[in-house]
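COMPLEX REQUEST
Ligand: pyridoxal-5'-phosphate
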Amino acid sequence: MVASSNNVKIVDLASLRRVFEVDLALVMEAYSRVMRSQRLDKPLVVERNTGIVIGGVEVLEALDLLSASKAPALLIGQDQVMIKRLSGEILKVDDLLEEFRLGRNRLPLRNFEIKYLIDIPSIDVPLDHLYGGVRIDRRVLRVYDDTLSLLVENWPTPLVRLKSFSSDYRRVYAKLESFNPFSNSVKDRIGWAMIMDALSRGALGDLLYEATSTNTGIALASIGNALGRRVKLFIPKTIQRVSDVFLKTLGAEVVRVPVSLTVEAIAEVEASARRDGATHLNQFENDANFKVHLKYTARELDQQLRSIGVEPDCIIGGLGTSGHMSAISFYFKSKYGDSVRIVGVQPAQGHVIPGIRRVESGMKWIHMVKFDEIIDVTSDEAIEGVIEVARREGLLIGLSSGAVFKAFRKLSPERGNIVLIFPDNGYKYAEQLEEYFRKREQTK
Ligand SMILES: Cc1ncc(COP(=O)(O)O)c(C=O)c1O
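STATUS: Structure written out below.
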């Protein structure tokens, strides 16, 4: 801890205890506020003996999502705060801790009324002061302690200029999420985040159930193996057969469900998980999904672009759970306002593109952020996108990436800095590519 004036100290985030849960909307508001002003005007309020954060929980969450490592905190005693349940019952700080331990889940802050018996001072601490020291970079030599480190220590995923689609007026970049180690996709990030979040709350059982279109399943099976957990996955019938082979090799149990979209299997997964006492992480509803993309994917993209002096004019990406593109939209709109255009990509009505789906099929985070446009792409167009990128740039991207590329082609902006988010590579989709070439041969 570093001493500072008026009883406010700068403390390590890791030393603080979180027992309260605040709504994501409040965290997003605090995040926007700090991002805009780049400073903090109030300290967190922390109970001295337990380290429990009583005030500014939403600011703490926002600082965490900004990857800060420290926070200004006012340390108070138990007798300087009154904590009341909405029912009127008065609680001690120790009671909170006990309740949190028993319930395994954080306590919803909205169920409590908190009154301070002292004044909370105003402060003016620049956000810049809340970052830790220099990171020791053994990453340069690519030596890792364990397989899980291959994920987090390899971020950021590469950002590459697509030279053949760029011009004097237009720079096109692709963020290659296939460089994640387990599923070779963007989904490793959420598999890790959902598991770590449940683990931190003591809510991760031995058996994990999830509905997946493959990538989240591979991520969960891999990370589950590293942590000694068993995994059962529910996959729609429309997904390529080879997925079962990968997942079985990883030791996961695979159930094919007679639905077209992964999200349609949720009710069945939830019921089976309840029946079998399994943990259903549920990527469609779990805020750890949105948060990991805000904390890492979006922020690293901004840092990468800034390192080459580029402000993005347009970012294009696919929509599945809407996790990664909603976080990217929220981050970039918070920082750059509407000067950056956010474009979502969905399959055209009646078309199947693994990993993405239509907005009206129901998505959580997309409704909390702003998208400037949603573009429809057919399954054949997505494959044409894959082929064009493969033949011009030598990158074998996946079908949803092909759809993102095709959306870029449809928009065909002549100038500006355009970023395409490519969620995975093409190797899982040999069946769809084969079928496309077979159809083309027949119509010749
Ligand atoms: C290949 C692929 N593309 C795109 C997406 C969509 O990502 P998100 O769920 O973050 O919207 C997914 C998610 O399943 C995916 O597997």
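REMARKS: Confidence is low (pLDDT under 50) at residues 1-5. The pocket of pyridoxal-5'-phosphate is lined by residues 185-187, 213, 215-216, 318-325, 354-356, 398, 400, 423-424 (CB under 6 Å).
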